[in-house]
Specification:
Shape: globular
Number of domains: 2
CATH class of the largest domain: Mainly Alpha
Largest sheet: 3 strands, antiparallel
Radius of gyration: 21 Å
Mean pLDDT: 87
Strand content: 5-15%
Number of strands: 5
Oligomer: single chain
Number of helices: 8
Strand order of the largest sheet: 3-4-5
Low-confidence stretches: none
CATH topology of the largest domain: Arc Repressor Mutant, subunit A
């Protein structure tokens, strides 16, 4: 007769709790370092970190309709905070208002040439993280990337962070479409296979899948190795 598995020992549970706490501590330290660099970089450019984030966002959405509501949603800030930030950038001549292409009654936000220059500089605020990531070998980077994708999705489902335009929740994402291949996934938008290392967390071509399809493909993605 098969014996039931023994429950985990108290020591094992303590170890699991300790690991979780250390992971949280590590993430907080990385977040603190990132905020510190943003303040340093913003001070050098005469920007607040939020203003820098808005410039980078507008740079990434170049050619696409972007309004204050979009900025508030993307950066997970309140509408009043987004409005105050935009007013400051307008006053500095870094952002301008233009008539929306899709609605003549609406106003889009667009970078001015000087705003575009500063946005490119603000992009470099997080470059210091590249050195840290380069200390991981290829296998460690792949595991880390996959783990980040899982954490982001979990926080999105709980409404703790804005929805990210990442591959596993996109309608064009076909997980494990090419099993036993170094590039197991397939992007239907560009009709090309790709692997975990090419997964995007913020894709300009992202289109959300329905909740049912997204859940089904997520299960396939997690099962794929």
């Amino acid at each position: 007769m098969t014996q039931p598995p023994e429950p985990p020992s108290a020591a094992a549970l303590d170890d699991d709790d300790a690991v979780r706490q250390q992971l949280i501590t590590g993430l907080l330290k990385i977040g603190l370092a990132t905020r510190h660099r943003a303040w340093q970089g913003g001070e050098a450019l005469g920007l607040s970190p939020t203003q820098g984030q808005v410039l980078v966002l507008l740079l990434s959405r170049s050619g696409k309709s972007t309004r204050i509501g979009d900025i508030a949603t993307e950066l997970a800030v309140s509408q009043p905070t987004a409005s105050v930030t935009i007013r400051a950038l307008l006053a500095k001549g870094l952002v301008e208002r233009v008539t929306a292409v899709d609605d003549k009654r609406a106003v889009d936000l667009r970078l001015t040439p000087s705003g575009r220059d500063l946005a490119r500089q603000a992009l470099g605020w997080s470059d210091f993280l590249l050195t840290a990531v380069d200390d991981l070998d290829g296998a460690e980077q792949a595991v880390f990337q996959r783990s980040i994708v899982k954490m982001i999705r979990a926080m999105q489902l709980r409404g703790e962070i804005p929805v990210s335009r990442m591959c596993p929740t996109c309608r064009f994402f076909l997980p494990n479409a090419h099993p036993h291949s170094p590039q197991p996934h397939h992007c239907a938008f560009v009709d090309a296979p790709f692997g975990d290392r090419q997964l995007r967390l913020d894709c300009a071509d992202f289109q959300p899948a329905s909740a049912e399809i997204a859940e089904d493909r997520w299960v396939q993605f997690v099962a794929a190795r």
